[in-house]
User: What shape does this take?
Amino acid sequence: MSKLTILCVLFFSFAGAAQAQELSPSEASGKVVFDKWCEPCHGRVAGGVFGGFGAHALPGTSALMIKYKGDLPPVLEDRVDLQPIYISTVVRNGLYGMPITRKTEVSEADLENVIAYLTRPR
Amino acid sequence: MALPPNLSQAEFDSALGEFEAVVGTDWVFSSDADVALYRDSYSPFWGEDEERIASAAVAPDSVEEVQEIVRIANRYLIPLYPISTGRNLTYGGAAPTLTGSVVLDLKRMNRIIEVNDKRNYALVEPGVSYFDLFKYIRENGLNLMLDVPDPGWGSPMGNSLDHGVGYTKGPYRDHFGSHIGLEIVSAEGELIRTGAGAIPGSDAWQDFHYGVGPSIDGLFAQSNFGVVTKMGVKLMPMPETFMNCTVTAPRYQDLQAMIEEVNYLEDSLLVGMPFWGSPVGGGLFDASPITELMQNGWPSVEQLEEFVTAQNKHAWSVSFHLYGPEEIVHATWAAIQRRFRDKIPGVAFQEEDLHNLPISDEDIPALPDKALLGIPNLEIFHIVARNPMTDADQPDGHADMFTMTERTAEGLHTAARTLAETFIDLGFPPATHPFTTPIAFYSRAYCVAILVPTWRDPAKNAASRALYEKCLDNIAEKGMGTYRTAPAFQDLAVSKYSFNDGALLKYQEKLKDAIDPNGIISPGRYGIWPANMRNNRG
Assistant: This one.
C-alpha cells in the first residue's frame, strides 16, 4: 500500500466518521428517507463502478454520469451544488424516467429532511 | 383541476368535507399541486385534453375508513380509483382511467400482517412494497424467497391485481396466480373475504383458496368490482442453492426443438424461468448486423441460416436458474444436458458456480440478476433512464406492450415479424427481428416485448400512440393480444378479445351493473364501463 493510499484511507475514514457524527437530527432522518426512496437508483455502487448497464450500476447514477459527462459527480450524495428548490421540484414532478413521488410516499416533512441531508454544509 | 362527472363544485366540496371527516384533513388532497402528484408520469397523453386527471385523492389508513369512503362516494356518485402504491408505471401509474375520479390512495395501509415460513405465505395490505416485505423477511430471519417484478417499489397486492409477473419458478412468477385469499370492500361498502377466510375463526385463509362454491377472486384483478384491502401471497421456501446454466443451439431452425424441450422442463417444474437469448441477435447497443440483414424485408430461412453460419456463433440460447439442494441441482443439470444432447445435434452447455442461499447482505449489490433470486431492486430503470442509446433524445417514459403468443417458434416469429413490419410501415426502426426471443414470465405463454417511448411532447406522443395502436390492431389480426396496458389503450386492447360478438366483455359489464350499480369503482378500467358511462368507451 502506497503512502498516498494510506493517507487517503485515513482521511476518508476520519471524514466519514466526522460526517456521521455531525448529521443533525433532520439530516439523519433525511438519510434514512434517502436510503429507502433514492438510493436504489441514485446510490453509490459497491466497488465504485458506474455507468454500466445492469450489474454494478444503478440507473440514476449511470444516467447522471452520462448526462454530466464528468462535470458533476454522478452520485447525489457527493453533490455540493444541489439547491432545495431543485430537489423538491424533481421529487414532486419527476424528471425524464424518474416518476413523480407522492406525499403518501415521501411526506413534506420527509422531503425537508432529505433536502437538509443533501444540502448540509460539508 | 377536474371535477367528478356531473358534480357541481359545491357538491364536490361537500364530499371532500365528508372524506376529511373520515381520514383527517391531512389525507385529502385537493389542491392543484397535490392532485398533480397523481398524474401518470409516463402518460402517452401528457399535457393534452385526453390525459386522465384526478379530481382529488383520499388516503385512508384502515379498512373501516375505506368502507366509509366507498359509502360517501355512492351517495355523491363520485368515481373512485383505488391504487395500492401507484407505481404501475407504463400501465397508467396512479392516474385514473376516467378523468374526474377521486384516487383512493391505499399507500398508508402498509401493514405486513403475517409472514409464515412454516406454511410459506404472507398476508399484506395494499401499501406494502416488495422492498418492505423483503426487508421484513431478512430482518426476521425467515426462510422464504420472494418472487419480485422488475421495480421493487411496487406492491405485491397491486402487482398481483394487475396480473404482474416475476422471475423465479413458474407457479410463483404469475403473481395473481400465486395469491391466496382476498379481503375486499365491495362497491357498496360491504366487507368480504374469499376462500377459507369466509369461515369465521378459520386459520386457513392463506392455505385454502377455494372455500366452496364459485371462486370470485378473479373478478378483482384488472377490473373494477371492489377495493381489495388484504391479500395472501404464496411464498417459495428459500432454496438451499442455485446455479445458472445455459444451453445453446447452433441453427436458426433448432428453435422449435429447443422450445419443446424447455416446455417439458418448465411444465415439469424442474427449472426456474427460462431466459431466452440469441448470440447472433446483436448487442443491446449495437443491432447493426440485424438491421443490415433486414434491409430487404424479412429474410428467408436459408438467408437466416447463412447469417448464423457467417457469424460463427450459435443461433439461440436459453438459461435457467436451478434452485434446490445441491445434489438435486447437479442431477437436474445433468438430466437437462442429456435430454438436449439427445434431441439437438451440436448443442453446447455452460454452467456458472453454484451459490448457497440466502445471499449475504454484502454480496447483494454486485449480484447481476437480483430479481431471479427474489431480491427487489430498481435496476430495470436503466431502460428508461438516460443511457448510451437515449443520450441524444431522452424519452420521458415508455408504454410497454407485450404480445402474448403460444410457446412455439412459429408463434414467436409471427409476433416478431408482425411487430417489425408495423414499425417499418409507420416509419420507425423495427424493434423486433428474426432473432427476437420471448420472455417467459408466464410459464404457459410467451411475451414478445416492445417498449414504445412516451414524451412530454404532444407531437411525439401522437406518433407513439399511433404506433402502439397499430401494433395492437396488427397482432390481433394474427390472433394475438396483450396482457396488460395503460388506460389510454385499454378499450382497444379489450376490444380484441371479441369472440362471439364480444360476449366476454358483455358478461363482465352485466356483472359490473349488478355489483356496482352506481358505477363508482374505477369506471372504464380494462374496458368495463358501467351502464351510465358506456358512451365513454374509446
